[in-house]
């Protein structure tokens, strides 16, 4: 087990990247607590439940869906939130959309 102490990690964005990071961290036992936060709360809940189903084989750790209030006591915050590129959308347009998302997160987290 790689876990040292009590480390709380928030992952903002429970899509493919965020869920994969949470899963890898659970496998490595690199945190004692992982909170998944997503604009689609049901997605975050589903990903947390999926990871929790395998925790009985890995050891003690808390993985759950939460909201921005949960990040106050976090040791690490990982932001993976962002839009996927749509057909016909330029990379610059996508970057603008993702900058807007990052600004929204920053305002909420202040």
Q: How is this structure best described in words?
A:
By secondary structure, the chain is an alpha/beta fold. The protein has a domain at 8-82: 3-Layer(aba) Sandwich (Rossmann fold). Helices cover 43% and strands 16% of the residues. The chain has helices spanning 16-28, 41-55, 91-109, and strands at residues 8-12, 33-37, 62-65, 76-79. A 4-stranded parallel beta sheet has the order 3-2-1-4, covered by helices on one side. α1 (16-28) packs parallel to α2 (41-55). The mean pLDDT is 90.
Provide the β-strand percentage band: 15-25%
Largest sheet: 4 strands, parallel
Runs with pLDDT <50, length 5+?
Answer: none
Number of helices: 3
Structural class: alpha/beta
Helical content (DSSP H or I, runs of 4+): 40-55%
Coarse shape: globular
Overall pLDDT level: 90
Write a short abstract of this structure.
The protein has 110 residues and is α/β, with parallel strands linked by helices. The chain has helices at 16-28, 41-55, 91-109, and strands at 8-12, 33-37, 62-65, 76-79. The protein has a domain at 8-82: NAD(P)-binding Rossmann-like Domain (Rossmann fold), CATH 3.40.50.
């Amino acid at each position: 087990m790689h876990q040292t102490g009590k480390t709380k990690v928030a992952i903002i964005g429970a899509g493919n990247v965020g869920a994969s990071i949470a899963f890898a961290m659970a496998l490595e036992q690199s945190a004692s607590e992982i909170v998944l936060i997503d604009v689609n709360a049901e997605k975050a809940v589903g990903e947390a439940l999926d990871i929790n189903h395998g925790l009985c084989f890995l050891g003690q750790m808390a993985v759950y869906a939460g909201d921005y209030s949960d990040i106050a006591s976090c040791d690490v915050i990982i932001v993976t939130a962002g839009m996927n590129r749509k057909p016909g959308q330029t990379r610059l347009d996508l970057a603008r959309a993702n900058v807007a998302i990052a600004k929204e997160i920053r305002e909420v987290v202040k």
